[in-house]
Amino acid sequence: MPIARNLKPAANVEDIPAPSHLSWDPVPGARAYQVFVHDIWEGEVLIFRSPHLTESRVRLPEGLLKPGGYYLWRVHARNVDEDIDFGDFNHGSLTPFSRFSVR
After folding, report:
1. Do residues 56 and 33 make contact, with C-beta atoms less than 8 angstroms apart?
2. Fewer CB within 10 A of the end CB, N or C, for the chain?
3. pLDDT at 86 over 70
4. Which residues, listed in sequence order, are joined to residue 8 by a DSSP beta bridge?
5. pLDDT digit string, tens, across residues 7-17
6. Interior angle at CA 41, CA 21 and CA 102, nearest 5
7. Is the peptide bond before 9 cis (omega within 30 degrees of 0)?
8. By the 8 A CB rule, do 80 and 87 touch?
9. Dist CA 76 CA 87 (whole Å)
């Protein structure tokens, strides 16, 4: 399965208003997505893990992203939700980290 493309916010954007949601282009064949957000200043600790999503966007919890913060995020596209035997559960469908900072 291919990886998600056209992530928004895009990689290496700096000093943007805190986004209320993250989005990407739909992946052909994907039946579910999962999003992971990490806080760089906290040692790249995972601060958000989405439930399995059917749309190519996720709303972030209010207050998750802090002013002056630096974040990494990635998307995992899946063809069968939570099925280890039949689902595409491999790093090939996991995007590289995309970094952004909040003003």
Report:
1. yes
2. C
3. no
4. 23
5. 999 999 999 99
6. 40
7. yes
8. yes
9. 12
Determine the residue type at 76: H
In the numeric block, the tokens 């958000």 are attached to 48
Residue 35 CA to residue 17 CA, distance in Å, equals: 20
Give which of 2, 54, 50, 3 is closest to 31, Cα–Cα.
Answer: 54
| Three-state secondary structure readout of the chain | CCCCCCCECCCCEEEECCCCEEECCCCCCCCEEEEEEEECCCCCEEEEECCCECCCEEECCCCCCCCCCEEEEEEEEECCCCCCCCCCCCHHHECCCEEEEEC
pTM: 0.90
Burial degree of 70 (CB within 10 A; 0-12, 13-18, 19+): middle
> Distance from first CA to last CA of the chain, Å, rounded?
35
